[in-house]
Amino acid sequence: MTHKDPAQGASPSRRAFTVAVAGVPAALAQQTPQPPPASASETAVQNPVPPGVRPPTGEAPLFAQPLVFTRKEAPRRALPFSLTQVRLLPGPCLEASEANRAYMLRLGADRLLHTFRLNAGLPTSANPLGGWEDPKSELRGHFTGHYLSACALRFASAGDLELKARGDEIVAGLARCQEALSAGGYLSAFPIELFNRLEQGKRVWAPFYTIHKIMAGLLDMYLHAGNRQALEVASRMADWADRWSDSKGLRPMQQILKEEFGGMNEVLYNMAAAAHEDRWATAGDRFHKLAFVTPLAERRDELRNLHTNTHIPQVIGAARRFELTSDVRFRDAAEFFWYSVVSARTYATGGSSNAEAWLTNPGRLSLEWKASTHHQECCCAYNMMKLTRQLYSWSGDPRYFDYYERNLFNHRLGTIEHATGHSTYFLSLAPGAWKTLNTDDQSFWCCTGSALEEFAKLNDSIYFYGPDGITVNLFVASELNATQQGVRLRQETRFPDEPLTGIVIQATPAAAWTLRLRIPAWTTSARVKVNGKAIEATPQAGSYLSLTRAWKKGDRIDLEMPMRLTVESLPDDPGLQAFLYGPIVLAGDLGMAGLTEDLIRNKQGPQVSKAPIEVPALRASGAAPEDWIKPDGSSPLSFRIAGSNPPIALKPLHRLWGRFAVYWRVSG
């Protein structure tokens, strides 16, 4: 989401960086699923177009004809267990979840409803929120949608009755506002006049972006918290969006979609699926920006200079359309987009973007890295993980979770402050950078809202099921109650501090069934024991190990995953290097020198130029990283650079809250 002064409302121009360079694959491509060949079908995608090659002259564009929604759900190889079936146990994910909950409870329903009531002409005396929720901000109301989603997700994932009641209260308040507005189902915290400006091509700050957040929050309250009123309010909003978009025509809508519109396509598809109303899916079809999705379906990377988090939600919507229709054009677009971002536009941490955009051609990350200090918008990491989870369900390819895991541990778990529940906007990779945070009631960035959702559902991707059995994809302390399979299990782990996990069978049917363990690509020589005895099979890194037997209550499976030090260079500058131990990015711990609360609080990113420090270059004193990067023994995952002066300690990036460095200039 592009930053704007809340008091101005007008949308500034996108940051436009034009760096004319050729693309090369990034190091992460080695662990990235290759895009499968385009599926044979009765559409124009029968002959796949290789990456970087335009279709032959005269060939009809893939989306030459208007979209027609026809439901034909695509099969999926793996499905996640519901949030209600998985519970977090003590560990880093539970700590982040509880910190997030504490922050949520400090925000009252009346304050979150204040601008909605003002817009509807209803009485309100609440203390207004600030930042992007200020009564003069054109994006006001978006955070309330995120908050509803988080309330619903928290109830499903932890049985949190207090936050469910808070969500129910907000839903009832929004219903009263919608009724008072009496505008055909329209509901927002800003007047409908913003949509008149949008239609006229005038400057306006992303009104459909906010509508998406509100609708998604209401739908989550229905799906995850059983609030029927929330579905009724969301349904009236969907009717309004359907009528509004239908009245514009194809060409005017394509012009309108040049302004950020969040995941309107996705939420309308989800509404259609939840309420069995395909007319809302037809409305969702109007929210595909064809100038963006067409190159992706034709396997062309034209992402340079695009605003990152404007477009990832559009791809999530495209992926959802494939799931509902089996239209392979949208599958190809989603898979090629993911491959392009992860293989050639992603840093060692798993994040992407700088200054909210992809600034360069693929593989030119060192140029992008140097362009500003505002790397890796957190919304982008959140949405890339959502997309990854979708794509994994189609193929079951374990490499999707190698990426997901890296993003989870290095980026997401490292961007929430446990003492306050506050979170970051950018995760900067500039030398000497630090993490900056929102405040309780004066920020409300897009990333504040997505963090609220993220840390309310950290149990959503640990376990999957399908025809292959029950799959363990993440090493997170947790319990699974797989009621349909008659299985209960408990995962005991201190990962990543210890490179192992234990699975204890707590309940099982008498018949044999399969437990599948992800053997991550980063491990060197995984070992598995069942009830203390090593199995005969040799687990292969980057695959699954399937264990099929008639399990008994009390059976225990232990998976050991030795970690090793690795180096990842930026693809276009091998001398700029990051260090990892297993999947964990190790950053230089550079202390707190020069940092003040004013530099940390309510700042979207670190203003490194206001408090510069010198970050030394390094000289490798051996061919392998373990020759000159040594464990220091102070704590798990702590290392030191041998011979450095002054001494440099390397620690997991997700645990550092002072200054740090991830990429180093290294000479041989």
UniProtKB/TrEMBL annotation:
Keywords: Hydrolase. Residues 85-459 form the Non-reducing end beta-L-arabinofuranosidase-like GH127 catalytic domain. The keyword Hydrolase applies. One of its GO terms (molecular function) is hydrolase activity. InterPro entries: Beta-AFase-like_GH127_cat, Beta-AFase-like_GH127_middle, TAT_signal. Residues 27-60 are annotated as: Disordered. Residues 470-563 form the Non-reducing end beta-L-arabinofuranosidase-like GH127 middle domain. The keyword tRNA processing does not apply. It comes from the Bacteria. This is Glycoside hydrolase family 127 protein.
